[in-house]
Amino acid sequence: MMGRPVSSGRIHPRIPGYLGRALSLEFSAVQQYMTQASLVEAWGLPEAAARLRREMVEEMHHADRLTQRMLALGFAPAASQLRPARAGGDLAALLREDLRLEREIIALYQDAVTCCRRLGDAGHEDFFAALLEEEIHGFHGLEQWLASLAPTRHHDFGDRVYF
Predict the structure, then answer these.
(1) What is the pLDDT of residue 64?
(2) In angstroms, what CA-CA distances link 103 with 21, 86, 98, 134, 142?
(3) What pLDDT is attached to residue 9?
(4) Architecture label for domain 15-149
(5) Mean pLDDT score, 141-159
(6) Which pLDDT tens digit goes with each residue over 19-65?
């Protein structure tokens, strides 16, 4: 049994589309943070690895909420396309890649909120708005972390290519 539907009315076809794209991006973020955590751990940065793993867990929670919402609406969750994990030669480069992905996630949630507002779908508007707020908070945390890295604390690993 898939659970009780979130809404008794018809769901606009754009809502499952937003949920599917969001799930793909959240799983992409999980993959990216997981990969980067392992990479910085190999670089000898255990604190950075732990922080990236916390980011990964937060994105997993988002994916779980999206999955629950999809099931409640009566359709099977499917992340359609994962972005490749992106890295760089130092922690600052990794964080810049993370900010790029987070911007994409934030833009999707902003669009979803606007769409739901226009459709008069307050339930989904609130759902996407809560995720948006959490993503914005996480984005600011990453920005602060990047800003805190003094040039002398960057770890340059030369011309190595990681992927």
Answers:
(1) 97
(2) 14, 14, 9, 13, 11
(3) 62
(4) Up-down Bundle (1.20)
(5) 72
(6) 999 999 999 999 999 999 999 999 999 999 999 999 999 999 999 99
Helices (H), ranges, 43-90: 46-73
Encoded amino acid at 81, one letter: Q
Residues with Cβ within 8 Å of 151's Cβ and at least 6 positions away in sequence, in order, are none
- Contact predicate 15/69, CB 8 Å: no
What Cα–Cα distance (Å) separates residue 111 from each residue in 50, 69, 88?
32, 18, 29
- Rounded Cα distance between 96 and 91, Å, is 9
Confidence check: pLDDT of 81 > 90: no
Identify the DSSP state of 152: G
Q: What is the DSSP letter of 77?
A: -
Using an 8 Å Cβ cutoff, are 30 and 102 in contact?
no
